[in-house]
From TrEMBL:
Family matches, as Pfam families: Ribosomal_L7Ae
Record protein name field: Ribosomal L7Ae/L30e/S12e/Gadd45 family protein
Ranges where the Ribosomal protein eL8/eL30/eS12/Gadd45 domain occurs: 5-82
InterPro entries: Ribosomal_eL30-like_sf, Ribosomal_eL8/eL30/eS12/Gad45
Length: 83
């Protein structure tokens, strides 16, 4: 996953609470989940995405996902929001 893809695709929401909120509101176009994030957290999000029909894209590490989102720390998940 490249920085350009995430940043080009629109507004990015980073973090579990915010990602959950945009999925529940039906605003998430795509959700990125780090494979090395805590499964107790990511499983709920992945199931919510399935229920809401949102595409889930897996990224190898939280560090990669954070970097792709333009932040210096790791991110467990991020969502691309439909404006």
């Amino acid at each position: 996953m490249s920085n350009e893809k995430v940043l080009r695709d629109g507004k990015v929401i980073i973090g579990t609470k915010q990602t959950t909120k945009v999925i529940e509101q039906g605003k998430a176009a795509e959700v990125y989940v780090a494979k090395d994030a805590d499964p107790r957290i990511t499983l709920k999000i992945v199931n919510l995405c399935k229920k809401m029909g949102v595409k889930v894209v897996y990224v190898d590490t939280m560090k990669q996902l954070g970097k792709a989102c333009g932040i210096e720390v790791g991110a467990a998940m991020a969502a691309i929001v439909n404006e």
